[in-house]
Amino acid sequence: MFSPHGPSLRELTVQALSSVERGYDLLAPKFDDTPFRTPDAILEATAAALPGRFGRGLDVCCGTGAGLTVLEAVCDRPVTGVDFSAGMLARARADHPGATLVRADVRALPFAGEFDLAVTFGALGHFLPAERPAVFEGVHRALRPGGLFAFPVGAPPPVTSVAHWAALGFDLAMRVRNAVWRPPFVMYYRTTSLPALSVDLMAAGFSVRTAALGLPGRWQLVLARKDTFIRAG
Question: Which domain of life is it from (predicted)?
């Protein structure tokens, strides 16, 4: 499951008993050697499926910078990554010296009308459903009119599959852990279905469509467009 350079079981245990921020600070030096990093196949398929080229790009919850490679491939102007883990940002800075990296809570993004494209990879499970509207509203605010917010979503595995029961077991384990241990570590795989995400995106002011990525697991790219007009009220 992990490469020889990945974290040990002890290191993963310490991370799991930490807060999300502290856990990722600890994991950052070895994060790219774990299965938690978004695979290159998904990154490459996302870059290929994005409609055209863009100006400035924003990677929301950029981690060690895997998504910055997508932005650098499709954006003609400087790109920005935002994350609340100083450790992850330090790793991203080493690999992407040309990017602007900002430490911030993405539930309160400090941007307004600055970007043409925003992306995120593998991060939405770190937000409870009640927290997602603030994230999506912040992304909407950060984009220029007509800007695009894009991210990949895999189809739920069939109930007869090992993947389904593994995800269910992981989510149940996390709920038990968070019920008996503080600080909480929020990471749930079953709270980010495409219908639920679409509802929250539309409530934030996006129009939503999807494009197939042609990858195993029936991955789709969510393409959420910020309206070009200003809503009354």
Answer: Bacteria
In the chain, the amino acid numbered 187 is M
User: Coil, strand, or helix at residue 178?
Assistant: helix
Q: Are strands 220-226 and 143-153 parallel, antiparallel or unpaired?
A: antiparallel
The one-letter amino acid code at 12 reads: L
Compute the 3-state secondary structure of the chain and give helix, strand, coil in percent, each to the nearest 5: 40, 20, 40
Mean predicted lDDT score pLDDT of the chain? 87
Q: What pLDDT, on a 0 to 100 scale, did the predictor assign at position 233? A: 39
* Predicted model pTM: 0.86
Q: Is the peptide bond before 158 cis (omega within 30 degrees of 0)?
A: no
CB-based burial, 164-200: b 16+ in 10 Å, e otherwise: eeebeeebeebeeeeeeeeeebebbbebbeeeebbeb
* 39-53, 190-204, 216-230: segment of lowest average pLDDT: 216-230
In DSSP terms, 101 is beta-bridged to 81
